[in-house]
Amino acid sequence: MADNLGYTEGSGKLIKTDEGGVSGAHMSVVKLAYSGDGVETPVLADADGLKVQIGKTITIPTSPLAGQVWPVSDNGGNLSVDDAGGTLTVDAPAATPVAVRLSTGAAFIDTIPISDAAGSLTVDGGVTAAQGAPIAVASAWPIKVSDGSSTVGISTVGAVKALKVDVVQQASAPQTRVTKSVTLAASETGTTLWDPTTGYKFVITDVIIVMAESGRLTLFDGTNSAANLVFDGVLYGAMYHLNFQARPWKSAAIDNILKATTDADAEATITVHGYEEL
């Protein structure tokens, strides 16, 4: 195929040129095509210029324009960032803070000391503290005995320290003699001999029994049971004195009632002496 086609201008045929502004010479306007022999494929272009196709793999260094940044994405994987021996600053939103681990530079800090900075610390809930052996008695922890509003004082008795103690005497009813007398017929069960004032116990010092008819007589403290028997036995027609003055019989509980039971034969008059106490 021949190259370098000659051209003779004919009527109506023009060659596109661009006239130079200095010499007035005309410069041909050329349409580019692929350079292979006999190839007529034109090189494409648009408003921004010629389109270029890279024929082989090359490395093109790139960088953002001044004042611009490029976004970075891990594309759903893990993104590794190297500070190149410097320091990285990481911004994290308040709603999703970044977890950090403190370090001294040589090792991680797992136990963090707390300081009140010469002020005071407030601890919610109970606090349990253990003291080791003090170096001296003077180093021991002071302890106060309190009921929540007042504390117990300390007195010096000779060279000995002692807690102050108040001796509280329980109030009791004056030991005014109480006498109860009841006549019992045969076959009585749990008849009241002495019902003390509400809130008091009865205290027996003497019991006088006059049997009109022989039979079994039982005196008991509240309940007719072995632990509460004041007297239980068969008595004959005579007078009997039960003396508790050396060791008065006190009812087992406040408001207990002294009671008596007779069998089918016994008839008696019982007189009880004593007093009441709280």
**Treating each run of at least 4 consecutive H or I residues as one helix, how many helices?**
0
CATH classification class of one domain = Mainly Beta
How many β-strands, per DSSP? Answer: 15
Which strand-content bin applies to the residues? 25-35%
Q: Please write the string of helix (H) and strand (E) elements.
A: EEEEEEEEEEEEEEE
Unreliable stretches covering 5 or more consecutive residues: none
CATH names the topology of one domain as Jelly Rolls
Summed over residues and divided by their number, the pLDDT gives a mean of 86
Structure, described:
Strands 7, 9, 12, 13 and 15 form a five-stranded antiparallel beta sheet that branches. A hairpin with a 6-residue loop joins strand 1 and strand 2. This protein has a domain at 178-277: Jelly Rolls (Sandwich), CATH 2.60.120. It is built from no helices and 15 strands. The model has no long low-confidence stretch (mean pLDDT 86). 0% of the residues lie in helices and 28% in strands.
What's the structural blueprint in terms of helices and strands?
Layout: E1 17-19, E2 26-28, E3 45-46, E4 49-50, E5 154-157, E6 160-163, E7 178-184, E8 191-194, E9 201-213, E10 215-221, E11 229-235, E12 239-243, E13 249-250, E14 258-262, E15 267-277
Antiparallel strand pairs: 1-2, 3-4, 5-6, 7-15, 8-14, 9-12, 9-13, 9-15, 10-11, 10-14
Descriptive terms for the model:
Jelly Rolls, mainly beta, four-stranded antiparallel sheet, rod-shaped
